Amino acid sequence: MRYGGWYQIAFERDLQADVSSVPVGDRRLLIVRSGGEINVYDAVCPHRGADLGVGGKLLDPRVLTCPYHGHRIALGGEGGGPYCVAKYPSMVRSGLIFALVGGFEIGKLPDMLDYLEGTHKIFAGFTKTIKVPPEMVIENAFDWAHFPPVHDVLKVEYGEPTMEDGVFTATTKLRVGPSMWQGTGDGTHHDDGTTFVEVPLLARAYSPNLTITQVAVGGGDHPHYVIASAVPMLDGTSTIRLSVAMPVVDGFAPPQEFADLMLQFESMGLEQDRPVWENLALNATPKYTAEDDNVLKYRKFCERFTLNGRV
Ligand code: FES
Ligand SMILES: [Fe+2]
What we know:
Layout: E1 5-11, E2 19-24, E3 27-34, E4 37-42, E5 57-60, E6 63-65, E7 72-75, E8 83-85, E9 87-88, E10 90-93, E11 96-101, H1 109-119, E12 120-130, H2 134-139, H3 147-151, E13 155-158, E14 162-164, E15 167-176, H4 178-181, E16 197-207, E17 210-215, E18 224-232, E19 238-247, H5 256-278, H6 293-303
Parallel strand pairs: 7-8
Antiparallel strand pairs: 1-11, 2-3, 3-4, 4-9, 5-6, 6-7, 10-11, 12-19, 13-15, 14-15, 15-16, 16-17, 17-18, 18-19
The chain binds FE2/S2 (inorganic) cluster and fe (ii) ion.
């Protein structure tokens, strides 16, 4: 896999046991749940490569026995004899499990999630598999020129992206037909362009694998947020996890139905992207135009997360 940085590696509800593993590109990450805490380690046994998440037994919160030859493996440090596996920085927020791959800076993602947990309610969303590299999924938020043809948007305005505190940020304003936003669109809307809804987006990429996008339907004061992450798989697909954070207004938590509506809308959007993504010639030599400027800047941002043998 090409890039590291923050990934959402699982939903907490997916954990079937106290010890499990998830693939992230050519790695396997071990998720250990113990004493109400969740920690993430390298899942490959240093003895001869067994997956510690498949049958590994926790002896105590920091030591596990390998299912293959029974060696004791120290989780993230000393205490397990000659063998230990590295710990990844990780965090769990509102049922979403994140891990930082490649030893890059922790950066601003934890602060952003703190903010969302303080002002919004985060609803764990859905998982989807699409045959596309993860960075293309994240790039989508910045590729303003694709919105009209792929997502049936009437008009797009866009701003100059910025890079601050390691976060790549860009604004886009979509003008959409009301029928589309209500989720009734079958891909062809019948609005004549005289009635429309403005949807300002403020997308922030925290890594080539994770964006949080502020969405203000109708330009309203209470935007919601879309948390999207894409994890590469060895078969060339990406596992996309998408959740929403809905605003808590005057102390009232938003109902699940609101979140479901937004999740449905986001799922529909990804299905519109799918046929293009799954048939992309990834090795074709592109001929960029000025319209691709934001995408090129995003790709430059991605290069900061190149793994190149980093652990
Ligand atoms: S592979 Fe883990 S103990 Fe042998
Ligand atoms: Fe898209």
